[in-house]
Specification:
This protein is an alpha+beta fold. The termini are far apart. The longest helix has 16 residues. It is globular and about 50 Å long. The chain contains three helices and eleven strands. The strands form two sheets. A nine-stranded antiparallel sheet has the order 2-3-9-11-10-6-7-4-8, covered by helices on one side. It has a two-stranded parallel sheet with strand order 1-5. 21% of the residues lie in helices and 39% in strands.
Length: 189
């Protein structure tokens, strides 16, 4: 627990590497098309709980893992964003099933430590192209759903992207009161 707290308060945060392909603005919403680098991720699935509760539970498990709750007992440092795979229901709300993930820091990409918590899986992901929009504040399910609807509207029917899931991303520790960064990502098809 101490490693988790030290890791989130005192360490520098490594950003998930990406490059911007294009920027746009429509209906007063700014968005970007980006290519996000692939790599190894720690991920945990939480089912049967509301989005906000499941997201928090998953994030805490991952913070413990990168804070030293692993087979090497090493604090790895923090990466951003904490990424939550959300599965929209037909009414636009989010299903009670999420996958919370965190990109493993660069220095551990070649040999990620094994999590002590067996619910955490280490998985390899390929590079992906996304559409992204950013917003501030302490993001909750209602905010992600709202910005997903805004991004969907801004992209219109011209953009091809996955409709069965999207990513809800938080970049900041909970103790950061302002200047917060959150994003919604749609994966380009």
């Amino acid at each position: 627990m101490l490693g988790m707290i030290k890791n989130s308060l005192l360490s520098t945060v490594e950003a998930w590497p990406y490059r911007v392909l294009s920027k746009g603005e429509k209906e007063q919403l700014s968005y970007e098309e980006r290519v996000c680098e692939g790599g190894w991720f720690a991920a945990v699935e939480i089912a049967g709980k509301p989005f906000d509760e499941a997201s928090k539970e998953g994030a805490v498990k991952l913070l413990k893992y990168v804070g030293g709750s692993n087979d090497k007992g090493v604090g790895m440092g923090m990466t951003a964003p904490v990424s939550i795979t959300a599965f929209p229901a037909e009414d636009g709300s989010l299903q009670q099933n999420v996958k919370v993930s965190l990109r493993i820091p660069s220095q551990f990409q070649t040999n990620p430590p094994c999590p002590s918590d067996e619910s955490i899986k280490i998985e390899e992901r390929q590079e992906m192209t996304i559409y992204s929009t950013q917003f501030g504040g302490y993001a909750k399910e209602v905010d992600y759903v709202d910005y997903a609807a805004k991004l969907r509207s801004a992209l219109g029917s011209e953009a091809a992207y996955r409709k069965d899931f999207y990513f809800c991303n938080g970049y900041d520790p909970p103790m950061k009161p302002y200047g917060r960064r959150n994003e919604v990502w749609f994966v380009k098809e």
